[in-house]
């Protein structure tokens, strides 16, 4: 009997989302409004960045066109300040007793590697959008993760975006919304135990 499979997002689940803090810090350097900078980012480069079509260097070049005095070291420090571990990180060893754990995130590997290095021994697979040239909620990235899981195994997916949960549900996964209060963390163990129980009967 296969263990349940627990698939976790990073932003809003295991670590803070880059928005809004990163854009507040960058907007100060660029001397433009946060709204102006963020909407330009969404319009011009966001999709390419998360799909890995734009390198991290190209991202910083784009930022420097708005904030020429910013150094890349300073920019990377802003990333680290904006990407803080959330309490769920501490639950990973406990959850690993109940399930195989997988990461599925829209992110840049170089930005999340320091965070993931602390829990890597507990992870079965890591799927980062910039590495696979696909991003959630594209159905293809879910198909890609399914190919890494034991055939027919039950899956619980945790994400902070409803659009991603909806797509996961269409693949037959159980879903759980990561709420800001962190209520979802106790729910994970409960649901994994329930899945295991259901498999035994």
Question: What does this protein structure show overall?
Answer:
The chain is α/β, with parallel strands linked by helices. Helix content is 51%, strand content 12%. Helix 10 (162-170) links the parallel strand 4 and strand 5 (174-177). The longest helix is centred in the last third of the chain and has 17 residues, at 184-200. The mean pLDDT is 96.
What would you say about this model in short?
The protein is α/β, with parallel strands linked by helices and 201 residues long.
Low-confidence stretches are none
Overall pLDDT: 96
How much is the radius of gyration in Å? 18 Å
Helix and strand succession?
Answer: EHHHHHHEHEHHEHEH
Q: Largest beta sheet, briefly?
A: 5 strands, parallel
N-end to C-end Cα span: 12 Å
Class by SSE composition: alpha/beta
- Overall number of strands: 5
Strand order of the largest sheet: 3-2-1-4-5
Number of helices: 11
Structural descriptors:
five-stranded parallel β-sheet, 201 residues, single chain, alpha/beta
What topology does this entry show?
Blueprint: E1 5-8, H1 21-30, H2 34-44, H3 46-50, H4 56-66, H5 72-82, H6 92-98, E2 100-105, H7 109-117, E3 123-128, H8 129-132, H9 139-146, E4 155-159, H10 162-170, E5 174-177, H11 184-200
Parallel strand pairs: 1-2, 1-4, 2-3, 4-5
Helix pairs in contact: 1-2, 1-5
